[in-house]
Write the structure tokens for this entry.
Amino acid sequence: MKKLVKVASAALAASMVLSTAAFAEGETFKIGGIGPLSGGAAVYGQAVMNAIQIAVDEINEAGGINGYQVEFNPQDDEHDVEKAVNAYNTLKDWGMQMLLGTVTSKPCAAVVAETSADNMFQLTPSGSAVESIAGENAFRVCFSDPNQGAASAQYIGENGLAEKVAVIYNSQDVYSSGIYNTFAAEAQNQPFEVVSAEAFTEDSKTDFTVQLQKAKDSGADMVFLPIYYSEAALILTQANSMGFAPTFFGCDGLDGLLAVDDFDTALAEGVMLLTPFVADAEDEATQTFVSKYQEAYTDVPNQFAADAYDGMYIIKAAAEQAGVTPDMSVSDICEAMKVAMTEITYDGLTGEETTWGADGEPNKAPKAMVIKDGAYTAM
């Protein structure tokens, strides 16, 4: 992953220098991005910014948006609320007209308060908390946490994947607790039983033996993990040391599990997760994107990258539907984009015939994948 950081940073910096030097004020659309390019959640932020840059380059080569080129400016928030707001202010000073971000939920919830006050159009590729799109100006590409929780319970139940399910979740994380709450509610309508639900906190996310022992004692044949990949890697490792081998099922936060440093990826074999993108899918659009991403960044793109790539093209589709131009005010662009988002239908990497309501939520079918032979494979 260190190589990815270096290559991505160099490519993004070079693109910024070229685009800023080439165009005068008012001649380009200025789109900002905010996400963790460093720190513990960097695997998400790097993937998002890399994919956006690929989409921007493609769009510019094809003639831009409404005939205007696009400048993209990525900023690092280190998955920190205060730094995310600082990044937003930096982008405002730069002249940002629309925001494609932020990447993670807590920073996104803080930034959406700023974009709402400024009436700036915001599309988050992966901020899944309900609060991430609070405000009429904000939309998202991914499913919300409540939608992921309910969809996970339905998928497990409708496909007969388990009879007794234990849950391990982070009670202090809005992503994790949000998914758990709707999963638990929907589970009551499904033909399986939640036999154990154990929480951990930010101060206790390295030792999961107590939670795993309760899951084991409850007779769980599946453990649902609505958490991020770093904690999931520890849980899988510790479960293996205890001789506990249930099926593990998670959501998009588990995407990145195979890239965790010093993790025995053999332990991830059979892990299932809901995610809208699988890199080994055979459709032409996916394979073209994966090929371009690997060529540029020497890595396989994850679901966050796919959401972001789609996000840039969604902005293009809505902007063309609205007929916006760079000389319009931020507020006027936002007003036009809000309407256009409810009028377009988008077919992309992460969903077919996706539409949006005025609440900013996407309408599309969920997808699932399983880790098989050390790779993410469509189910």
Observations:
- DSSP finds eleven helices and 15 strands in the chain.
- The first helix runs from residue 2 to 22.
- The chain has two domains: 2-143+283-363, 146-275.
- Confidence is low (pLDDT under 50) at residues 1-22.
